[in-house]
Design brief:
The protein is mainly α. Helices cover about 55% and strands about 0% of the residues. The protein contains 4 helices and no strands.
Length: about 100
């Protein structure tokens, strides 16, 4: 048995006759935008700084070890170093 033509359907003609548009439909709406208040930006900065503070160790062990090594060296402690440290302490107290 051979079927020559299906009545009412011509799929090849339907595909060939479709017209495709080369230009996509352009949006007539404006661009999207977001505005962030100054308060929200301040809160974001505060959150970021809190995260950094939480991740930072309280004591820097590498610096403590470095200072201990310097103090143990007899050539390090001299009058110039002691005077400099005393000046920095006085400045931190505002004197």
């Amino acid at each position: 048995m051979m079927i020559e033509k299906l009545v009412g359907t011509t799929p090849i003609n339907n595909v060939q006759n479709t017209k495709r548009t080369s230009n996509a439909a352009k949006s007539t709406f404006g661009e999207d935008s977001v505005s962030i208040s100054k308060e929200a930006l301040a809160k974001a900065d505060e959150y970021y700084l809190n995260q950094v503070a939480a991740e930072t160790p309280d004591v820097r062990a590498d610096r403590v070890a470095e200072v201990k090594a310097k103090i143990q060296d007899p050539n390090y402690l001299n009058s110039a170093v002691i005077a400099s440290a005393a000046d920095k302490i006085m400045e931190s107290f505002g004197l």
